Amino acid sequence: MTSQVSSPAEQADEAVLGEQRKPAAAKDVRRLDRVIIRFAGDSGDGMQLTGDRFTSETASFGNDLSTLPNFPAEIRAPAGTLPGVSSFQLHFADHDILTPGDAPNVLVAMNPAALKANVQDLPRGAEIIVNTDEFTKRAMQKVGYDSSPLEDGSLDGYHLHPVPLTTLTVEALKEFDLSRKEAERSKNMFALGLLSWMYHRPTEGTEKFLKSKFAKKPEIAAANIAAFRAGWNFGETTEDFAVSYEVAPAAKAFPVGTYRNISGNLALSYGLVAASRQADLPLFLGSYPITPASDILHELSKHKNFGVRTFQAEDEIAGIGAALGAAFGGSLAVTTTSGPGVALKSETIGLAVSLELPLLVVDIQRGGPSTGLPTKTEQADLLQAMFGRNGEAPVPVIAPCTPADCFDAALEAARIALTYRTPVFLLSDGYLANGSEPWRIPELDELPDLRVQFAQGPNHTLEDGSEVFWPYKRDPQTLARPWAVPGTPGLEHRIGGIEKEDGTGNISYAPANHDFMVRTRQAKIDGIDVPELEVDDPHDARTLVLGWGSTYGPITAAVRRLRTAGHEIAQSHLRHLNPFPKNLGDVLGRYDRVVVPEMNLGQLATLIRAKYLVDAHSYNQVNGMPFKAEQLATALKEAIDG
Q1: Is the whole model's pTM more than 0.90, yes or no?
Q2: The pLDDT of residue 642
Q3: Backbone region of residue 72 per phi and psi (left: phi > 0; alpha: psi in -120 to 50; beta: other values)
């Protein structure tokens, strides 16, 4: 239905700055168990900031939440166009949730392009808040509207709230010494204030954030706070919003502890710092900026107080070269990138395999091939991580499953790299990197002990009784070679990419030695200690859904829906992709059907079929967006019925 609003001047008069007026008549407050909100506008409208602030206040309130930022690859796409639309979706609830939601209950559309790009995702009855000031004839024609969707009846199936956000914001800020253009920039804060009123979100954190963000520009800070308060007051006083909503804290969803909202890239950064401290090693990051991995470089550069050194290299090859040099020098070494960067780093990763040095290669996957879709998500680098090097160059591969899990995955990657002296791939993706959820801050005694012993002296006795240092004499349990820091007297040894002789590390072209070294390096990876695969199967199902990485949330949500509807289905999720858990073959053999949903064309399914001779069924999506729970539930039900 279409609602009527009073004139902009009347509305602005109601939205008096700083006043938390009580409405003339009490408004209805309804309790909800969950809500999905999507903010959408031009990439310059501040939708990511608006969504992030709403998320932060929601996290502080105690709701469980999951977010999905979605923005264009262009730094500044043409204003008012469909390719330039930026959106931020937030799903919050009073119970445990796993995904940012399939379909928004509320859409805030700042212009016609934002409405057109997102309206098809809305269920009937959803609420739409539109900025009517932007619905000019020219703006609507730019995105293909022949007539105004606000007037032609095409939105009759929704609860439409036409709000002149720009005009109201400018009116609210008329006391400030700002140009109209400067005042208009605060319309996202007006919208944030309105939504904060609608869903009873706290406001103190946002006001504190604005004061801090614009500390050097107090006039701008005051204007944004005024716009935020005006939006709150508008919701409280206008007749168009007769109802507000409450979503109670998710008190039963979380174990006891201290929580904060965290994104995948931030959790991964903290995990790397924690791993460095637990290993008692300096952390070195050699990196070249690339979407969506750059935030890790940005974050780690802030933590020099923890002994972190960050090096922004001139290219991807220099970045990993510096990181490998740091590993040789005794640091916990990391290089971060996305798929195109992995291709450039592949020769140096092979060198790290040959040198048998610990190195973390963090790949935040995005849509490919080549430059592909820089700001969209995909899981299509698995086979590249497994095999994307010349020769037999095995590398362990692990993948986090949620944004918060990126912290634990970083610690696990460091454990494997340090224990087994090998480069390790950590495969995150854009969905995890930019999405966020509550994270319980661990106690220090919960973190693993990652300390290592550097080689200190000779480790081998020759036939003549003299003691020498052999750089490739291996630990009998892990097959790891000793880690000798340069400059340690008596531990000088050769490095380089040419094949080493077993034990001595001398250059060797002997066929038998090469065969032995290739098989030994493979045996070292095959022998890595990884936990057995856990299976969630409460009803002895005949169908198993097997996932990896960021598909965990949508798969689990789909499985919950099916079980609620009375269907029997088992679920398992892989963290370790090389080597696989030792019981994976037994698990797969217990089920009549195995379904593998992936955001690629079936890469894990290919590996499963080849290694275990299981007829795994792929369910694939490569549209740059994560799976929807309802979509997966439908596909899995077909597998159960089949």
Answers
A1: yes
A2: 84
A3: beta
Over 50: is that where the pLDDT of 217 sits?
yes
In the 3-class helix/strand/coil scheme, how is 413-447 assigned residue by residue?
A: HHHHHHHHCCEEEEEEEHHHHHCEEEEECCCHHHC
What's residue 26's pLDDT? 64
Reported as a single tens digit per residue, the pLDDT across 330-385 is: 999 999 999 999 999 999 999 999 999 999 999 999 999 999 999 999 999 999 99
Which carries the bigger pLDDT value, residue 73 or residue 551? 551
CB count, 10 Å around CB of 73? Answer: 16
Straight-line distance from the first to the last Cα atom of the chain, in angstroms, rounded to the nearest whole number? 42
> Beta strand 159-163 with 127-131: parallel, antiparallel or unpaired?
parallel
Tokens of 629: 């729970």
**Tokens standing for 563?**
């079980």
In angstroms, rounded to a whole number, what is the distance separating the alpha carbons of residues 189 and 596? Answer: 42
Buried b (16+ CB within 10 A) or exposed e, 304-341: eeebbbbbebeebbbbbbbbbbbbbebbbbbbbbbbbb
Reading phi first (left if > 0) and then psi (alpha if -120 to 50, else beta), residue 396 is in beta
The span from the CA of 395 to the CA of 380, in Å, is: 17
What is the rounded distance in angstroms from the CA atom of residue 158 to the CA atom of residue 441?
41
Do residues 616 and 594 touch, judged by C-beta distance below 8 A? yes
| Phi and psi angles of residue 70, each rounded to the nearest 5 degrees, phi first | -145, 115
Secondary element (H or E) of residue 230: helix 218-237
Report the relative pairing of strands 127-131 and 106-109 from DSSP bridges: parallel
Residue 258: which residues within 8 A CB-CB, separation 6 or more? 440, 441
